[in-house]
Amino acid sequence: MGKTQDRTALLQGTLDMLILRTLLYGPAHGHQIGKQIQRTTNDFLQMQHGSLYPALHRLERRGWVVSKWEMAPDRNREFKYYRLTEKGKKQLVVEESKWKRMAEAVARVMWPSAEES
Amino acid sequence: MRWWWQVKNDETNLERELRSDLELEEEEQREKGLPLEEARHAARRAFGNEALIKEQTREAWGWVPFERLLQDIRYSFRQLARNPGFAAITVFTLALGIGSTTAIFSIFYATLLRPLPFRDPGRLIILYSSIPAVGYVGPGSLTDPDFAQWQQQNEVFDQVAAFQGKTSNLTGTGVPERLVGLATLTGGSHRRPPGPGVRERAKTGGGASWPTFRFPKAS
Fold first, then answer.
1. A75 reaches B (C-beta below 8 A)
2. Left (φ > 0), alpha (ψ -120 to 50) or beta: where does B156 sit?
3. Which alpha helices (H) appear in A1-117, and where do they start and end?
4. What is the per-residue pLDDT across A102-112, written as a single tens digit (0 to 9) for each?
5. Residue A98 at interface with chain B, using a CB cutoff of 8 Å
6. Of B65, B71, B29, which Cα lies nearest the Cα of B47?
7. I want to staple B157 with a disulfide (CB 3.0 to 4.6 A). Which of B197, B208, B212, B217 is the partner?
8. What are phi and psi of B177, to 5 degrees?
9. Residues with Cβ < 8 Å from A85, sequence gap 6 or more?
10. Other CB atoms closer than 10 Å to residue A7's CB: what's the count?
11. Cα–Cα distances in angstroms (integers) from residue A25 to residues A41, A61, A82, B25, in the given order
12. Where do the domains of chain A lie, and which CATH numbers do they carry?
């Protein structure tokens, strides 16, 4: 339980950013997005991928992504594909710079000598 | 009604989306060589708590507060239907409360809030004489000569008039009636007579300004 909480706490502010970044590669459905994040982080961010959906729907509501049921190219089946909008791309830049500043601030506190040397 | 369709539609859509994700996961687990039952369980584990996810997703739609309100209303009606006695007492209490509040406010409004039936009622002023020498400072009565002087020396008010509480009997061919009201007196031929008492005045709805009193000039 403790482990899951660590992960969700970490993800809380960054999940939106991760989803937007993943969609930069092109449209994807929920399952793909989840797997993609999981794979790229070597399973470190191995969330239960169902927890993506509230975030996906929230992003859609804000107009950062749009969704559409489409036939998958590799199999005869429809999936709900999410696509990044222009607004979403702008938002990604905002979130990214926010995250960078945050990471830098934390780094400065954690490893002060590294800055000075 | 359109709103309801929208929600139903979103609901089916979400169901379908989550289902397709679960099925995909299940297929992947089976490709790893797990038997059907186990693959299904593994998929569910990897997916997470489906009910919770649905709930959180609905939350993202923004309907939730409204839905909860509807649920609460439905629930309260069910509860009232289940306990008719309680419902009756509740309705009675509410009726009593609303009724008495209305009644009290009506009185409050009539006596304190309702503006006097004159133009610019805020500019009405009551003048009175007092006799500090004997310790009397309250509203006192006025002699005719005093009143005449106040009127003559008036420079700041539109009009000056006197009034007096009056109770009298009205008799005629019908049943006699007791009249309670204010009698107004006025002098000064160049001034408009103030007309009948306050209540009658309200009915006739005259637009002219009401006479006012003023303090006598210090001389």
1. no
2. alpha
3. 2-12, 15-23, 30-40, 52-61, 86-110, 112-116
4. 889 888 999 88
5. no
6. B29
7. B212
8. -130, 145
9. A63, A64, A65, A66
10. 16
11. 16, 21, 11, 22
12. 2-116 (1.10.10.10)
Q: B9 — contact with chain A (CB < 8 Å)? A: no
In this prediction the ipTM stands at 0.73
Asked if A55 and A8 touch (Cβ cutoff 8 Å), the reply is no
Residue type present at position A60: E
**What's the pLDDT score for residue A89?**
93
Nearest to A54 among B13, B45, B59 (CB): B59
- Selected for mutation to probe chain A from B44, B57, B59 (highest A CB count within 10 Å) is B57
Instruction: Give the integer Cα–Cα distance in Å for A6 and A4.
Output: 5
Interface test with B, best of A15, A16, A31, A45 (most B CBs within 10 A): A31
Number of inter-chain CB pairs under 8 A, A vs B: 57
CA–chain centroid gap for B18, Å, is 49
What is residue B119's DSSP assignment? Answer: S
Show the tokens assigned to B208: 């002219």
Q: Is the pLDDT of residue B92 over 80?
A: yes
Which residues make beta-bridge pairs with B180?
A: B167
Do you know the residue count of chain A? 117
pLDDT in tens, B34-91: 888 888 888 888 888 888 888 888 888 877 778 889 999 999 999 989 999 999 999 9
Q: Give me the phi and psi of A19, to 5 degrees please.
A: -65, -45
Query: Coil, helix or strand for A111?
Result: coil
